[in-house]
Every structure is written in structure tokens, then in C-alpha cells.
Amino acid sequence: MSQNLNKIVVPTDFGEQSLIALEQAAHLAKMINGEITLLYVMETSGLFSRLIGSSHEEEIRKEVNQKMDELIEKTEKEQGVVVQKVVAHGSVYEKVAEVADMLSAKFIVMGTSGAGNIRKRFIGSNALRVVRESQVPVITIKGKHHRDGCKNIVVPLDLTTETREKVNKAIEFAKLYSSDVRVCSVLFTNDEFIVNRLTRQLAQVKAFIEKSGIRCTAEIIKGIKGEESLGQIIVDYSNKVEGDLLLIMTQQETDITEYFIGSAAQEIINKSDIPVMSVVPSPKKDTTEFLPY
Question: C-alpha angle with apex 248: 15 to 184, nearest 5 degrees?
């Protein structure tokens, strides 16, 4: 595999949503001089794998490789990007994170069907677990219709320490796509101190983004507790401004065996038809106030 290109890992199950994710990943690869690694994970644990036997598993592997070769040929011909393939054994979310780490991937792009019937819950659960395990940004694709480019990037902000990191990632993508950035904050309180502090932060963020030569709007959205959740309000706002990418930070907290993703992030990933980029906050000293450098 080429060493000088940015790697994008795209898990596939050959379903409609994973094919849409591959198409979106190809657009991104062209923008960042990248190549795609198409990943299929054969889940070899549990009752099913014991029943099918090794001979039938080999037949499945051959069929998988044939489908992947056809998909790679089609994508390279139509999109003009390099596509490699990896077939792995294990659990989906573990192998996606493992392969991304092995390749030093820049992004993971994967389809998700969010919440719904049993099959959709299974797909959605894997996407959330990939987001939880991954150390690189994960772009989840739930909607079926997307622009090739990225006109509007939606960036929800609060008063947490990851604000600057999220803004810098938005600037990076906005420069790639010549996008506008739509900064928003949701408030469920009329507390004057919090309102003033958030208003001041939004003004600082907007000025910082515009200093980078990017068009930016900033808006406070008033929410009413008990009527709508934070995640739903952000999804509704993103639809209103015709967003093409919704950028969130996954507020991960170390536990003995796993990470936890905040409920708002889960809801946004499950409900948004707009692609969602989930970025893991880097460990850093406390810089709660956004101070332009």
C-alpha cells in the first residue's frame, strides 16, 4: 500500500448504506490526496460460525473477495481513487478500530442505519461502538442523498474544554471544501451568567473562524426542558441550515473496560441524515475559555 497517501478506512457489508458511505469516502479521498481501504469483517465468534464449518466459511470468503474486487474496480473507474481491500476475522467494531490503527488512517467512513428494527439496531450499535473505540475521526453516513461537496459545516458548541479542537477541525474541512461554518449553541437556561459567557464565546469563535478566511454564522438556540432533547434540537438546526457535515466531539470517559459516549452524541449519530464526524478529544490542559491564538 502507498505510504504517502492519507488512508480512509471504509467498512462494508455490501448493503445500500455502506455503498453510499464508500461513495462519500471517495469524494473525500480526492480532496485530501487519499486512498481507501475497503474492509469486510467476517464475524467468526458465536453459534453461527460453529454451525457453518470451515469449508463453508471458505466459500463465503471467496464470495466476499469477489464482491470486493468488483466494488473496487467500479469505484476506481468511476471515482478515480485508489482502493485497497482487507478481509478480517473478529468483531466488527474491534477490527475496524484495529485496521484503522494499523494503517495510521486519517478517517473512518461508515454507513449506519441508526435506531429502528433489529437489523438496523445491529448496524447502529456497531457504528456507535466504532466511534467509541476509534482514536481517529469517524464519519457516519445515515442519509441516502448527499451533495458531492460540503457547502455548510455545522458545529455545535458548549462551554467544555474541547471547543478549540472542534473549531480547528471545522476550519480544516472548511478550507478543503470552501465551506461556510454554522456555529450554534443550545441553551436550556435563562441564567444571565451562562448566557453572557456563551454569547461571548460564540463571538470569539466566529471572529477566529473568519480570521482564517472562512464565512461563519453563530447562533444561540433556546430549548425548553422536557420538550425536545439536545440531540434532536441540533439535528433539526442542521436540517434547517442545509448542513452537509455535522461535527461533534465524543466526550469519552475512561472506564475499566470501555468508553462511554454521551447520550446527545449517540442521538445525533442515530438520527441525523446529515453525515456526522465524531472526533475524539485529545488529552490537554484545561482551557475552558476559547482564546484565539
Answer: 125
Q: Which residue has the cell 478517517?
A: 107
Tell me the pLDDT tens digit for each residue of 79-101.
999 999 999 988 888 999 999 99
Q: What is the pLDDT of residues 98-136, one digit of tens each?
A: 999 999 999 999 998 755 433 443 445 688 889 888 889
DSSP string of 97-144, one letter each residue: HHHHHHTT-SEEEEE---SSSHHHHHHHHHHHHHHHH-SS-EEEE--S
- List, in order, residues 6 or more apart from 251 with CB less than 8 Å away: 160, 162, 261, 262, 265, 281
Following CA atoms 89, 91, 94, 100 in sequence, which dihedral angle do they give, to the nearest 10 degrees?
50
CB 33 within 8 A of CB 81: no
Domains, the chain: 6-141 (3.40.50.620), 152-245 (3.40.50.620)
Q: How far apart are CA 191 and CA 169, in angstroms?
A: 30
Q: Judge contact between 250 and 261, C-beta under 8 A.
A: yes
Query: Mean pLDDT across the chain, nearest whole number?
Result: 83
Residues 6+ apart with CB under 8 A from 201: 157, 159, 163, 185, 289, 290
Among 211, 217, 227, 109, CA closest to 157? 217
pLDDT at 44: 63
DSSP state of 254: B
Contacts of 225 (CB under 8 A, 6+ apart): 188
Question: What values do phi and psi take at 277, rounded to 5?
Answer: -100, 120
Helices 263-271 and 118-133, axial angle in degrees (round to 10): 130
pTM attached to this predicted model:
0.85
